[in-house]
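Please, structure for the following, as tokens.
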Amino acid sequence: MDERKRDSMIAYLRHRMDDFGISPDDLASALAAAPEAGRYRSANGDSWSGEGAMPQWLKQAISAGQSIGHFELSSGSVSKPPPPAGADWTNDPFAGSPLARSSPARS
């Protein structure tokens, strides 16, 4: 990502955080406190704890040549919670990502 695009993205994120009353500290604490849902996760959000039978999505990815390590979550990974009720995420490119997971500030 070039520097201009990065700066533009940062400005956008700061604006969205201001819209929802999210401070950088709120974001950091939400990312640090989020529970881990599994040991492996697909791009679609499917997860697997590593126990029991390997799920089909992971078997297919490995058969296609992908490394299982590609799907392994790091200790700082976060789960995918449902979007907050009443929020319009239709035009938000970060909806569902760690950047959009903090709750709005409570009045």
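The chain has three helices and two strands. Residues 32 and 54 are 28 Å apart (CA to CA).
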